[in-house]
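Homework help board

Subject: predicted structure for assignment chain

Our instructor gave us this sequence and asked us to write out the predicted structure in token form, then describe one feature. I got the tokens but I'm not sure how to describe them. Can anyone check?
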Amino acid sequence: MKFRKVLVFIFLILLSCEGFAQIKAKGIIVDTVKSSAKKSGKTYALIFGISKYKNPAIPQLQYADADARAFYHYLINSGIDSNSLILRTNETATYGEFWANIDYLTNIAQQGDKIYIYFSGHGDVENKTIVKDAFLLPYDAPRNVYPISAINVMLLKSWIATWSSKGIMSIFIADACRSGNLAGGREGMEAAANIMKDKWEDEIKILSCQPGELSLEGKQWGGGCAI
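My token output:
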């Protein structure tokens, strides 16, 4: 079994060209981020983090909401206007909020802009169909029958492809933990990872784990997730 480094290093891989003055492992403290690169276009972000789920049958997490807030503050310290950032955690990170804000970003983003989609929470697959669709579980996700109100990754892929066709850069960061108590069972862990790692159209995609790996969280990694 492979374990991942503290999540903050995912940020370093993605954004190393912008430079860090200081960053500490979780809980994260981010000082001023320095950049010498010439920036063009606007940057937007939709940031979801769910540790506490409405359905008591879905295992609760400890640090997913904190991870989302840490990424939000990282972007602010990178010089991105907070008015361009949408942060939703726990009970505000609902299915309706996710898709309403995807639609909103589609309406306002222009060619040359950049959109981050960050999701920290549970991920799983629908276990009763031949085609294994991957889902991200928002606050109000069901315990099973995910199409009711869980985020279909393939549908999200279609929206990202639409942005790409308009010349908008998309960066999708999925820090999706997997529990054996979810509907997909152990097979769901592997299937969800395989679906999310597949090549998408002109996107930058960073995942917390690959097929055959586990995404875990614990105090031993600074109070957050680790690979």
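Reply (TA_rk): Your tokens look well-formed. For the description, you could write something like this. The CA atoms of residues 157 and 200 lie 7 Å apart. That's the kind of observation they're looking for.
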